[in-house]
Amino acid sequence: MVEYILKNGIVFDPTNNIKGEKKDVAFSNGKIVEDVSSDAKVIDVTDKLVMAAGVDPHSHIAGPKLVVGRLYRPEDSRKGIVPAKGVTRSETGFSVPSCPATGYRYSRMGYGTVVEAAMPPLEAKHTHEEIMTIPNIDVPALPLFGNNWFVLEYARDGKVDELAAFVAKWLKLVKGYGIKIVNPCGGEAWGWGMNVHGVDDPAPYWDVTAREVVRTLAKVNEKLGLPHSIHLHPNDLGHPGNDLTTLESMKMVSDIKKSSGVRNQNLHMTHIQYHSYSGTNWRDFKSGAEGVAKYINSNDHVTCDVGQITLDETTTMTADGPMEFDLHQLNGLKWANKDIELETASGIVPFIYSGRNSVHSVQWAIGLELFLGIKNPWQVMLTTDSPNAGPFIRYPRVISWLMSNKRRMEMIENREVHKAVEKKSSLATLDREYGFDEIATISRAGPAKAYGFTDRGHLGVGANADIAVYDLEPNNIDPSVEHEQIEKAFGNALYTIKNGQTLVKDGEVVAIKQSQNIWTNVQGLEAEEAAVMKEVMPVFNKYYTIKFENYKVHDHFVSNPIEVKVQAGKASK
Amino acid sequence: MAYEEPITDYDYIVENCTCAFCGCNCDDLVYLVKGGNVKGELEDNVVVSGYVDGGHVVGVRHACRLGASKVMEDMDQRLLVPMIRDAEGNLVETDWDTALDKAAELIAGSVRPVFYGWSETSIETMKFGLELGELVGAVLDNQATICHGPSLQAVQNAGYPVMTLGECKNRADMIVYTGNNAMNSHPRHLARYSTFPRGFFRKRGRFDRTVVTMDPRYTDTAKMSDIWVGFEQNGDYEFYNAMRAVLRGKKLQKDVISGIPKEDIEELVESMKQAQFGALFFGLGLTHTLSKQRNIDIAINLIQDLNKFSKWNLIPMRGHFNVNGFNIFMAYEQGFPYGVDFARGYPRYMNGETNTIDLLTREEPDVFMVIAADPGAHFPSGANRHLANIPVIQIDIHWGPSTELADIVLPGSFIAVEAGGTSYRMDGVPIYMKKAISKPETCRDDEWIVNELLKRVQKIKGIAPREASK
Q1: Which of A17, A22, A28 is nearest to A7 (CA)?
Q2: What is the model's pLDDT at position B4?
Q3: Interface membership of B355 toward A (CB under 8 Å)
Q4: B324 and B428 in contact (C-beta within 8 Å)?
Q5: Among A87, A93, A329, whose Cβ lies nearest the Cβ of B335?
Q6: Beta carbons of A337 and B344 less than 8 Å apart
Q7: Which of A297, A279, A268, A293 is nearest to A368 (CA)?
Q8: Which of B221, B278, B272 lies closest to B243 in space, CA to CA?
Q9: Which residues of A fall within a CB distance of 8 Å from B163?
Q10: Closest CA to A421 of A408, A437, A434
Q11: Residue numbers of B between 419 and 458 with CB closer than 8 Å to A
Q12: A62 and B332: CB-CB below 8 Å?
């Protein structure tokens, strides 16, 4: 057993209330420990920035959507080519990188855990195959439930207990971590080329509304006591005036009591930037960030991640099928669609976000307004909804924007973004600048807490030795001025340590570690699950095109998983 | 088709097996197995886990003629032992070590190796193949290069509006087969996925659907369709273009387009607009006629246009059971679907440059490994001429024209019967194809063979195995 000690770093660990103390971090056997013997290997990081390894709460990195993106955009794959070197294989791709590239790039940014935010259950095996191919990061995956026919039916009939057993069973079948809901009822409507608008517009045939689906799934989530709350991509993504839908989506679950001891929220709103648009059309479109931020500031039952626009050419991909078709109608670029029987829709369209475009610039500003307007950093998280608003490799740039009002104003004044930003958003009036402590919160501690992880996202004794060290001296830098330095350092970790193993040194990947899938095993509902399966099986056999035996994710597809056991109905600690 | 007595002489039943023939990957097959011992659990005579050691599949339930005949394949043509071609040009039986060492030596010593095939083996096998390819700087390519390659090019031009087959089964009220004859090539496609099954919103099955075949030939599929549109050969592009024009409200200038009266086109477009959910299945008849990928471009554009009025999706009718799997696998591993060249230490994909046929006709490759494919039967003669001049390593289960070209023959095992493995259906649904019986004693699993080659090449090159690989 080798012991290590990271010496004299400036540590930011919001979970344990450590804000820039000069201290040592000791670890052995893959875990953080109180102290080590004098034989411990010393890694000298004097005055350098030390944080827990990053936790990304929402990213699209593995699965059928991604592969369609790679298949049909060789022009994107050609962009990020890096030849094989040392321990690493070749990398391809910019917005939709290949699996190895995804692992290396996250690792270089000091990340250790990334949540794959949308897994269609029918094709879960595919997602897990990709997770096995991505090195160096742990990947929980959230299965899509919001347009599943069984869910629609149970929600319509108000059968919370049955739905709870169904969800518990399905998480086991597909090795999923929590409940993802995308455009509830809208995905099903897309089966007929339609969409729903707002939370009270029923899905065709099923006669159930998004309000009922979301509320029922929220109740189910708390009844099961899942580590994460429901993860909601609400209705009307990207429509001017959707801020009202967003506010209603948050309000409608405010009375549901959370059952976890770790997280604070009963609802996680994802890529909320896309849902904070005010106005009635693209002409009078303006920021609705203020109202959304105001709700979040006065209600602690919600957390959100932003989905910050990075002004790049990217590939949008979401299970929100109708939205992607609208986008294709808007920009005319090649449209891919992928509807999954009984479960979900999805779509993919390349998109070029440009600072010269007024709408894109205002979208960019809205994201930043939300970051700056939401007061509690534990309620807002760093994402670009990768690759939708921009690829994840832009996180360091977003961090530099958050830490430097000077840089933001420079972008506005130098017209790096369209002048509409000043008219249609209040970004120019917000001079808040994030400190390292807040950055550590939005990129590791906050997401870990929201996901109910106690073994990562912090540097307390007993946590995994997932550590990032950046080549920055927090006491000798003014991020407001030296924003370029900030971007560079957060993109090229001095050290990334995962389970005690040094994977990155000086911004280079030096070791490869097999990734692990994290999934939730709900226990104590075995009888209920069996009863529900009796109802489900006749429908399954009749309407799926695959046999039940071949539907589940075999152990073969999840090498070395981390199983989170949850006792149904009991709050986890 | 003569009447055949049902098979009653069997000992065990293995259920939910997956058919390893076409891109339908029907996973409801029941194998009737005679003889052998069950390694696993048995309930009555149904094998609920594990496989039958030493058994033979004597009957297959639910499969079509194509699938059943492949599963119950006559052992006559089975490759059973490794062989090396001697100085006189005869294939001589040898032992595994000799054959593998010789093959590894060839691969390790080559400057422009091509690994072709993969569409009839498992993703797990491809994994080792790719690692080997990256190590020696090979070109990895699959049958898409000679079949749906232009479709993939079109997808890269125009988009990819697809669905899983169950969407079609549950919702579709209009089904179009174009440039393919599913009744012959994918016999259960209509029965299991598209036309006949009773779907959730199509409770009466066939009666709730309109089936259209657009094909110059009056095929078996056309015979059982409601509408047959027999446009002229090579008239695909013009015909689709006319449909798009009508859809966009344009008046057609000519009275007859590609042999179809304009009134018929207008009527057809109108009914496609009126459909609640339409599904278009296209095959090589569309992909490989005059305008190649441009035909598919315009078919995709037509589908995109139709979505302004109704709901339409399409699916390419992939041939081999895992041809889609290789494209998916390569895309998530290295970013490109097929024809991926690692010669420069990073992946390159350039149609017309890094595809097998182009390489062979330019006489570039110096070693060719073919796995689960039959270039001898399918490649143009110019390409095969070069194959005859260079060392060819074949990994396959049956004798074929490629065996005549091969210098080293490594007998594999039959995925989904004798070995388990992952495959991707034509619509991208992954299926773990389970093992039902044991393989012939002298054969090896594809996965094992390719891994062995990898290990031996690593040894020759003095390279340690990759950490994250199994």
Answers
A1: A22
A2: 78
A3: no
A4: yes
A5: A93
A6: no
A7: A293
A8: B272
A9: 337-341
A10: A408
A11: 420, 422, 424, 428-432
A12: yes
Interface test with B, best of A68, A104, A341, A351 (most B CBs within 10 A): A341
* Distance separating alpha carbons of residues B133 and B112, to the nearest angstrom: 11
Show the tokens assigned to B130. Answer: 């790719």
The top-level CATH class assigned to A3-52+460-509 is mainly beta
Write the residue in B164, B199, B328 that is nearest to A67 by C-beta: B328
- Residues A75-91 have a mean pLDDT of 95
Domain extents in chain B:
83-145+321-413+440-461, 149-316
Q: Which fold has domain B149-316?
A: Dimethylsulfoxide Reductase; domain 2 (3.40.228)
Supply the ipTM of this predicted assembly: 0.96
pTM over the 0.90 mark: yes
CB-based burial, B97-113: b 16+ in 10 Å, e otherwise? eebbbbbbebbbebebb
A555: contact with B, CB 8 A cutoff: no
* 478-517 in chain A: CB under 8 A from chain B: 511-514
| The total number of residues written for chain A in this structure | 573
Residue numbers in B near A98 (CB within 8 A): 331-335
Question: Would you state the structure tokens that stand for residue A390, as one six-digit string?
Answer: 């921009």
Distance in angstroms (rounded) separating the CA atoms of residues B51 and A367: 56
Sheet holding B29-34, edge to edge: B37-43, B46-53, B12-17, B29-34, B56-61
Please tell me if residue B160 touches chain A, with a CB cutoff of 8 Å: yes
Cross-chain residue pair A122–B304, CB shorter than 8 Å? no
Counted across chains A and B, CB pairs separated by less than 8 A come out at 200
Round to whole Å and give the CA distance between B114 and B101: 18
A122 CB neighbour count, 10 Å cutoff? 26
Chain A residues inside the 8 Å CB shell of B334: 89-90, 92, 98, 100
Residues A357, B183 contacting (CB under 8 angstroms)? no
Residue with tokens 């971590």: A177
Cα A320 to Cα A186, A187, A197, A340, B115: the distances in Å are 7, 6, 13, 12, 39
CB atoms within 10 A of CB A462: 11
**Contact status of A108 with chain B (Cβ, < 8 Å):** no
**Smallest Cβ distance to A92: which of B199, B335, B345?**
B335
| Per-residue confidence (pLDDT) for residue A570, from 0 to 100 | 67
| Protein fold of B83-145+321-413+440-461 | Rossmann fold (3.40.50)
Q: What does the pLDDT read at residue B1?
A: 60
Q: Residue A516 above 60 pLDDT?
A: yes
CA distances from A400 to A19, A174, A311, A396 (A): 19, 38, 15, 6
CA dist B47 and B61 (Å) reads 15
Which pLDDT tens digit goes with each residue over A289-320? 999 999 999 999 999 999 999 999 999 999 99
| Chain B residue numbers touching A92 (CB-CB < 8 A) | 334-336, 346-347
B351 touches chain A (CB under 8 A): no
Residue ranges per structural domain of chain A: 3-52+460-509
Q: Output the six-digit token pair for A131.
A: 């997770």
Say yes or no to pLDDT of B33 above 90. yes
